[in-house]
Write a structure and sequence with these properties.
The complex is a heterodimer of chains A (about 290) and B (about 220).
Chain A lengths: L1 H15 L1 H36 L4 E5 L5 H13 L3 E7 L1 H11 L4 H6 L8 E6 L5 H9 L4 E6 L1 H43 L1 H10 L3 H38 L4 H4 L4 H30 L3
Antiparallel strand pairs in A: 1-3, 1-4, 2-3
Chain B lengths: L24 E5 L6 H8 L11 E2 L2 E2 L8 H5 L2 E5 L10 H10 L5 H14 L15 H13 L5 E5 L7 H16 L3 E5 L3 H7 L2 E6 L2 E6 L6
Parallel strand pairs in B: 1-6, 1-7, 4-5, 5-6
Antiparallel strand pairs in B: 2-3, 7-8
Helix pairs in contact in B: 3-4, 3-5, 4-5, 5-6
The chains are: A alpha+beta (about 290), B alpha/beta (about 220).
Chain lengths: ~290, ~220
């Protein structure tokens, strides 16, 4: 019976102030969408790191006049290097074959390069791709080495772009969150004012604090949860239209976003929306409804 | 105990010490600003003294933890000059509201509320709204609401301040009847007529000090 009373008070409160309720829901929705999107991007960057680090190679290109002895020394050095997981040797002819394959649709380019025009190289996979600099320093001075190139540099530029999009989303999320908090505070003030007589009587006759406060808090939590649902809808739509839609061709670069991750954002956003609105409402009430 | 409000130049209550027995009927009298209402507020634990203790029913109210206050207030009924009824609820609903918000069921309210409305002399007017009732009748609703939980103590802060003399006397008869059920009644008032007629214990306060405490006093 008390639960029924509290719930009916919540509904009455939401209706009494319906424009404010809608404003709360929308700001919560936008803020949580941004938060959910940046959480997805976070998961995505980690997945991409895992996916790409396995394939990343460090290429040690050799000079044109490298001797057999120098090549053999490098080979043993790499074999005994604890940082190296595996490596293979790529001769000039192998490099040329690969080049022909890669640029098959540009015959002019292929014909301009002579079979021995490409450098031979060691292709090295590291146990920990982050340790590139250490490896590079070790072999850069060795005789017969021309240049050392790390594919990770290209990848880190990609991660940089994803990272800045993520930062932007987080900034938007926090600005919208501030707006949402202010709206919750304001709504609670208005609600507390319009119910001040009831609250005064409740305090007088000894209604418990949770009983007085819970309708107000639940009003805010309701808005937070509906906002989370809206945000979830927006993310589903984004996954459906954007990632699986217009950006589909990029999945070879961006690794696909699994549905599981998108579904995971719902409990995450609902928890954030619910807890943030509840705490804000409760703190506001501390100021407006003194015992 | 002593109570000084922030920004006040002198204490509202200055070293006041008073004991009230169970079942007593006590008037606090004195000019405006003498500190009478502060006593009511302290008994309700709306404010706490700066120094000293307020003990109600064996419990030190002034040091009570805030989460215990609601339960404590259920043992106290309170009536004010301005009635403090909810305008959008009928007499019955106003009284029932006080029961419902402390967790009593509707069935309990249906049994108890008509009984207490009958007791205060409002039988037959249960479904009127406050604006359809006279001042005296509204105050009866307020008394019914204060009494419906059978409190140990009934506090009345100038309950007759807005009422004409005849109506005031009716309300006093009602409070007297409640007092006879064993409820302690503490009443703050300006109304010399009433004090003189009732001939109960009178405590006079002036500038925050007790200047008189008579067992069967008059307004002076």
């Amino acid at each position: 019976m008390r639960l029924k009373y509290v719930l009916s008070e919540v509904m009455v409160g939401l209706w009494r102030n319906v424009t404010m309720t809608v404003a709360m829901i929308i700001t919560f929705g936008v803020s949580l969408t941004m938060l959910g999107a940046s959480a997805l991007m976070f998961l995505q960057v980690n997945a991409m790191k895992d996916a790409y680090y396995d394939k990343i190679e460090v290429s040690i290109f050799l000079t044109g006049e490298v001797t057999d002895a120098q090549r053999a020394t490098l080979d043993t050095q790499l074999k005994n290097d604890p940082l190296v997981r595996s490596f293979y040797y790529e001769s000039k002819s192998q490099a040329y074959e690969k080049f022909k394959r890669l640029f098959a649709d540009a015959p002019d380019l292929v014909s301009a390069v002579k079979p021995d025009g490409l450098p031979e190289s060691f292709r090295v996979q590291l146990k920990n791709p982050e340790k590139f600099q250490e490896v590079s320093n070790k072999y850069a001075g060795s005789q017969g080495v021309e240049e050392i190139i790390d594919q990770q540099k290209l990848l880190s530029r990609l991660f940089g772009i994803v990272g800045s999009v993520q930062t932007l989303a987080l900034i938007t999320a926090s600005i919208m969150a501030v707006a949402a908090l202010l709206l919750v505070g304001n709504t609670i003030q208005v609600a507390a004012y319009s119910k001040r007589r009831e609250v005064a009587v409740m305090k007088l006759v000894g209604a418990s604090n949770w009983f007085i406060q819970s309708p107000f808090v639940l009003e805010a939590v309701f808005a937070g949860l509906i906002g989370a649902l809206l945000a979830f809808g927006a993310l589903l739509l984004g996954k459906w239209l954007l990632i699986d839609g217009s950006l589909k061709d990029l999945t070879s670069v961006l690794t696909p976003v699994p549905w599981k991750n998108v579904l995971l954002t719902l409990p995450f956003m609902a928890a954030v929306g619910g807890v943030v609105s509840a705490v804000t409402a409760w703190v506001t009430l501390r100021f407006y409804i003194r015992v | 105990m002593t109570k000084t409000y922030p920004k006040a130049s002198r204490p509202s209550l200055d070293d006041v010490s008073v004991g009230i027995e169970k079942g007593e009927f006590v008037f606090f009298i004195g000019p405006s600003g003498s500190g009478k209402s502060s006593i009511i507020k302290m008994l309700l634990r709306e404010i706490t003294p700066n120094r000293g203790k307020v003990v109600v029913n064996g419990k030190d109210v002034s040091s009570m933890r805030s989460w215990k206050i609601p339960t404590f207030r259920r043992s106290i009924g309170c009536v004010f000059q301005d009635f403090r009824l909810l305008p959008n609820r009928t007499a019955y609903e106003n009284v029932a509201f006080a029961l419902e918000v402390i967790g009593k069921t509707k069935a309990v309210a249906r049994r108890v509320v008509p009984e207490v409305l009958e007791l205060v002399g409002l039988g037959g007017k249960e479904h009127r709204y406050p604006h359809e009732l006279s001042g005296g009748e509204q105050q009866r609703v307020a008394v019914a609401r204060a009494f419906v939980n059978r409190p140990l103590i009934l506090l009345a802060d100038e309950p007759t301040g807005n009422l004409d003399p005849d109506t005031s006397i009716e309300i006093m008869r009602l409070l007297d009847r409640i007092n006879r059920t064993g409820t302690t009644v503490v009443m703050v008032t300006h109304d010399s007529n009433i004090v003189n007629q009732m001939r109960r214990r009178v405590i006079e306060i002036e500038s925050g000090r007790i200047v008189r405490d008579q067992p069967r006093g008059v307004y002076g």
